[in-house]
Amino acid sequence: MIHQLLALAFLTSLANAATVIEITAKLADVPAGTKLPASAEKLDAMKGVTVISAPQITLAENTGGAIEVAEAVAVPGGAAVPLGVTINIRTKLTENGNIWHSGLVTDRSRSGGEKGERLETSGFATRELYFSGWTPDGGTVVLRTSPATAKTTRDGRDVTSSRELVIYMTLKKRSTSAPAAKKATASKPAAKSKTAPAKTARKKK
To answer: Among 30, 68, 91, 151, which is most buried by a count of CB atoms within 10 Å?
Structure first.
């Protein structure tokens, strides 16, 4: 019941808002020290870069939301643990028409492990990145975590890698308004219209 009330409150605030903020993100795993391009579109052609996902979310002003890109990864012993990225973000408009934003990025990634004939282990590391700032309408924010070094042993050989999580977020204002209420007449009942199911606030790829 609590989750239903929260969802209803969010959808109601979104429907009544005069302006919403559309956030288009692109998440990528890059080798540590990589020189980043000015635009996210160029990431796809870069050597050694793995594009994780390109989700999108729409928020009512001064309303928080989350983008989650995760998958269940099997670990020794038969269990599975979530591995991936969660972005919690809140936005609002400033007096000058800019978009203020703040939030937290949580990144859970592999940090090591060993796989041999008699033993197998899996290690994970969780990094947190807090952010706050502003951008003009249509501007892009680039977030970059500190490098994470992972060392794994496979069949007696050590494999070491150092990677960084990079997030491009473009924030745009979009006007919206609630549909005008239809006035029913005594001679003819008001027509009922069918609406498509509400879309969720976040997408995963």
So the answer is: 91
| Largest pairwise CA distance in the chain | 84
Q: What is the pLDDT of residue 156?
A: 66
Domain count, the chain: 1
Question: Which residue, among 153, 141, 80, 76, has the nearest Cα to 114 in the 3D structure?
Answer: 153
100/173 Cα distance (integer angstroms): 11
Of 48, 49, 97, 89, nearest to 67 (Cα)? 89
Tokens of 34: 């990589």
> Residue 5 above 70 pLDDT?
no
% of the chain residues with pLDDT over 90: 48
What confidence score (pLDDT) does residue 148 get?
Answer: 80
- Do strands 99-115 and 148-154 pair parallel, antiparallel, or not at all (unpaired)? parallel
Which residue stretches of the chain are H helix?
A: 2-16
Distances (CA, A) of 31 to 73, 99, 126, 134, 168: 22, 31, 18, 28, 16
Residue 192 lies in a domain: no
Does any domain span residue 156?
Answer: yes
Nearest to 145 by CA among 124, 170, 166: 166
pTM: 0.70
Residue 189 lies in a domain: no
